Amino acid sequence: xxxxxxxxxxxxxxxxxxxxxxxxxxxxxxxxxxxxxxxxxxxxxxxxxxxxxxxxxxxxxxxxxxxxxxxxxxxxxxxxxxxxxxxxxxxxxxxxxxxxxxxxxxxxxxxxxxxxxxxxxxxxxxxxxxxxxxxxxxxxxxxxxxxxxxxxxxxxxxxxxxxxxxxxxxxxxxxxxxxxxxxxxxxxxxxxxxxxxxxxxxxxxxxxxxxxxxxxxxxxxxxxxxxxxxxxxxxxxxxxxxxxxxxxxxxxxxxxxxxxxxxxxxxxxxxxxxxxxxxxxxxxxxxxxxxxxxxxxxxxxxxxxxxxxxxxxxxxxxxxxxxxxxxxxxxxxxxxxxxxxxxxxxxxxxxxxxxxxxxxxxxxxxxxxxxxxxxxxxxxxxxxxxxxxxxxxxxxxxxxxxxxxxxxxxxxxxxxxxxxxxxxxxxxxxxxxxxxx
Length: 437
Known about the structure:
This protein is 45% helix and 20% strand. It has helices at residues 2-28, 102-131, 149-153, 173-183, 202-211, 232-236, 255-263, 311-334, 339-343, 348-352, 361-380, 387-400, 406-435; strands spanning 33-40, 53-59, 62-67, 69-77, 133-135, 145-146, 161-165, 168-169, 187-191, 194-198, 217-218, 224-227, 243-247, 250-251, 269-276, 279-286, 295-297, 305-307. The strands form 6 sheets. It has a 4-stranded mixed β-sheet, with helices on one face. A 4-stranded antiparallel β-sheet has the order 8-7-9-10, with helices on one face. A hairpin with a 2-residue loop joins strand 2 and strand 3.
């Protein structure tokens, strides 16, 4: 419930500010705004169906309201085109959008995108100022890395120590893994005192994306720290401090390996070999139908680095975080043109999962900034009905000196509307299918 609440608050804030960007730009050029709504007062995207508001109040020429259809919002700018009922056979009045100069219309349309971008800069800056930026360097991974079967297939091994990714030392494990997935550079690891080069291809990256896994994790020793009552580990007699090194006959170096092996034996009994006070022993443990035995590992307490910033220094960091996030998202977007990328396209549920499960304000604001960048990018796409589609028509007019005909624009906007609707159905359908897997 907390995750959903944070998601709802964040998205509502971003929608209001995005639409405010259009609103304030329109007012700046004395353009009439008929409506300013959080959520839709109709069955999106069908403007003529189920028209009613939960709240509305008219102030001046503008009706401000709260619609009944959640997760969206809009400003109705007079004469903007897009409504099939727009009267285009008469000369535009001075207060209409279509009466404004091309550069003015361009600024009005870009207003929401610019607000989302600079909002991300502000939030990232304030997060850096308040909490700093914490990173985990690869050199601080005491036990090396844990890799799954995909990592093993390209030559990595459990316990390898990462030296560099793309020729650069790994000062931030999170960024390094993202770089591998998006850019596929080579990496160097140290094993038994030797430096080994490992190639990371696009095919490997797609395998990880398909599996929804990371190229490697910090290796965590399988030392028991917590036990759940009435679960297999407790009932079998395992205790806090026990060091597990074999699960179902397979040698275990890390906790992650143990979890994987336990999950493979859902509903079965398995032998676990462990060491306690220097004595090796074996117990037979019942695995639950969910593939768990109710055990938690000891925190290895890796040493992290936290960089702090003064108020003014934080703004440079916020700018770099925003532009870096945008660059990475553009790279991620290119994956949509692959079979794996399309299958991983997600809707509201996928976005909601990005938020923390408790009231962690650092995580909340960082995620809000990330979503703000995504909204800026998505709205810039040259798809009719999105801001980018309108901008494309205006750029055409500015370059050629010829305005796109109203008839053509209405047809394009109709096609764009159904395309966006199909995309929403597909992405949210993916979320539903994943929920039942």
